[in-house]
Each structure stands twice: as C-alpha cells, then as structure tokens.
Amino acid sequence: MDELRGKENYILPNNYIPVMGKNVLQTILSRLPRKSLLELIQVWPKIKSTQAQASEGDSEHERRVLNTRILKEAKSWADGSKKISKRKIIDKIVFEYWKNGLSLLQLSQIDCQLIVDRPNAFQWVHSTARDSHGKESVISLDPKKFLHMLAADLSHLYLTYIYVCRHSKLPIVIVRIQLFDLQAFSKNEVMGRPHISSHRPYFLAIPANSPHVIHTLTSDLASNIILQSVEKNLSHDRRNVLHLVTNPEERPVRSLEAMHIFYGNSRFSNSLGIWTPYAHGAVDILPLGRVKEHSCLSNVKKLPENTYTNKKEEMKEIARRRFKGVVEIDRKTTELFDVPEKIKNKRSRKEVNNRISTLNLPSHEEEEEEEEANKDIADAYNSNSIQPNEFSSIAPVQFIEFTLNEKLPIIDKQAPNEELHSGEKRSSLRLRFTGSDIFAGLHELATKVTDDSRIMLDPTKIPSWLTGEEGANSGMVKDGKLYRQ
C-alpha cells in the first residue's frame, strides 16, 4: 500500500489510475462537449502526470514521441484540418491514447470542466459560517494551508485525493474531494479487482468575500465527515472558532451561478424581482458619479410609459415590471457579481480551470508546467442546456415551497349583507412549485390571459414572494409577509 499513499500518508498521487471499466470511462467523457474534449487532449500531453504511456516501462524518448503525436493530431482536429466525431475522440482516448486508464488528476479536470460546460449538472446547497456569538463571519482562507490541513484530517479515516481549480467566470474556488476506502484482501485480488473503493466526489465552491460555503448534497457518512472536517479547519484563530450552520430543509439549486448570486458577493442577492435595477445601478447613482453617464441616460433601455395598444401588452408590461423592475437589463452585458481586481486582471478568454494547487505535485517544476498548460483550455461557460428567453430569471430556482398561514374569514349571518370578518382560525395551505425556472414560469403565466374572468395570475395583485424577490427561500406567509425557514 505504500505506493498508493504517495509522499504524504494516505494521500493518493496525481498519477494514480483507479480501476474503471472502459464503458465507465466512455460515459464520463461523453458528458463533456466535443470542444472541451479536444482542449483536454491538447493539455494532458503537456503535463507529466497526465501524459500517455505506450507501454509499461517505456523510455522518456518514447513517451515524448507519443505525446507529441497526440498533441499534433489533437491540434489538427481542433483547427478543422481533419474531421472527427465526438464518439471517435472518446474511443481514441479510452482505447488508444490512455488505454491503461485515466489518472485521478485527469478525472478531476473532467469533473471541474463539467461544472463550467454544464452548469446544471450538479445540485448545490449552502452552509453559513458563524462565530461563537452566532454572527455571520466572512471566510478568509489561505488555500494551501487549508487544503493541507483538510487532507491531513481526512487521511486519518480515508485514502484522500483533493483537487482545486478556479472557476473561469465566477469568483469562486472549487474544491473537489474524493475519498477511498481500503478493502480487505480476499478473492478479489485474484480476480484483478482494486483493493480500494471510491466514494462519490464531493464539491465545495467557496465564493470570495462571503460567509457562505456552497457545496453538493450531504447525503452519506463520507460527505458528512468532509463537511465536519471543513468546519474544523475554517478557523485559523482559536479565539474565534467558526461553525458551519446548514439548513436541513434547504432544497438544492442546480445552477452554480444562481447559488453564487444568492450566497456569493453579488449585489443581486437582496435585490431581486422589482428591485433588480437597484442592484444593477440603473436607478441610484454613486455620490460622486456623473449624472450624464448614468445608465438610465445612456445604454439601458427604459420601459415605455402608458403606450399600450391593447390589454395584453399592458399586462405583459406590468408583469415585466413586477418580475424584473422598471428598467430592462441586458443579461449578456450585466455583471451579476463583483469580481475582485486580482481575478479580473488575471482572467483571460481561454482560462477555465486555472489550477492553483493540488496536494500531490512531486515538484515545483511540474506545478508550473501544469499551470501553463491549463491556460490552453478554452471558455465554454455559455453552453447551457436551457436557453434564456424574455421570461428567464437572473437566478433560476428549481424548487420552492410556501405555507400560507392567514386568518380565515367568517360570515356574520346577523349582519344585513352577511359581511365577512377575519376570525381567529388560520389557514395551513401549502404551495409547492417545481420546474427548471419557477419564477420564469410564473412570469409567463401572468402574461398569458387578459380576460378578468379567466385570469390565473394577475400581475397587478401578485404578492412579492411570488415574483422572485426572496430568491430561493421557502417559508411561511403570515399576514402577507414571508418568514423564511
């Protein structure tokens, strides 16, 4: 087992190749678009721990020749001089180039690339860091120190592999943690099966300047241990111990960008729905700002005032104001979050998974080599499976639930017209919504019917908690006010 442990006890090295069937590897690779597969093939031959091997014990020269050939072929496919399908690229990787299997580093890069290429591929929840007084505390980490402490903590119980990358578009550091159990020696050894079994990779997304940690679902013992270990190593000051508080009732959100808007350093987190233009800066102006350069007077399109030609157009305009505010915002050019200057200056068009560290790099030379290679991965962030339209929310929510606890009216039969009065009894009506973008659906529903007798959702009367103002927060509605869970 010494070979598996690497330089640090129970921490697997970058070049360790877990035993996986060819069909499993094909499935993993098929989740990425063709463009990303070509980019990864152009990166792997440049990194020593991900280079292809012709056979066991081949010389340095043979390995260099092989990887040069792979790189040349990949470039010819990428520039279009030779045509090749996505299926053939996958077969080349699995059966020809890396026929011995993919290393942990390669599998980690594939997963992190998937987060960029397919933003809806994972389900995310969040935990909040609080100090001993119960107040939210902004997380400030030394990444390398934190990761070494985290790995040392987890290695007491599991074989561990940790990979870190920085998201290309969001100011978020993504940490991929994979745990392995050591299996007892048995007949499996003769059958050629591995002596370690893998748990599902666990992801942390740590926003800049935020008290929140975004992470995948905590569904089993291993993921619970990871979260406890993260909590233990968040605090660098013993006088100010931080605790992670997780809402067990929170429903997951599929979009990492939406989670970052809700829990990252985005101004939109508390300015959704009708208040969206305030977060955009299209309503208020900075104290020292120039009035002539205000967005209302320049590049932001103002909505028309009372120029409706029919009832449907009027209802559509009112609904847009209730769900998106009085100023129409171009989502393509709007910054939905604050990007620190350091990240903004370093970020380039082709930087997707700019790796900042892994725990098992055998030399500083290889780390520099890999950082340089990763600059060649192109940005595929905008390849979403769901195309936005005029109703799309800035931060899509897939599940939300409200409990209506309002006073029930009673009929006063002794009154002349049997008037209604509010009684002491309260309702307990639960409204549950599910879908790919709930508030976009409600927005569209509010524009469909204009006949007062058939209208299902009146945009002039819809409560604020049904327009997306509260983000992904479920809760109880009492006397017209939403109390979050």
From TrEMBL:
**What Gene3D superfamilies does this protein map onto?**
3.10.20.720
Q: Which GO terms describe its biological process?
A: CENP-A containing chromatin assembly; chromosome segregation
Renumbered to this chain, region (Disordered) spans: 463-485
Q: What is this protein called?
A: Piso0_003766 protein
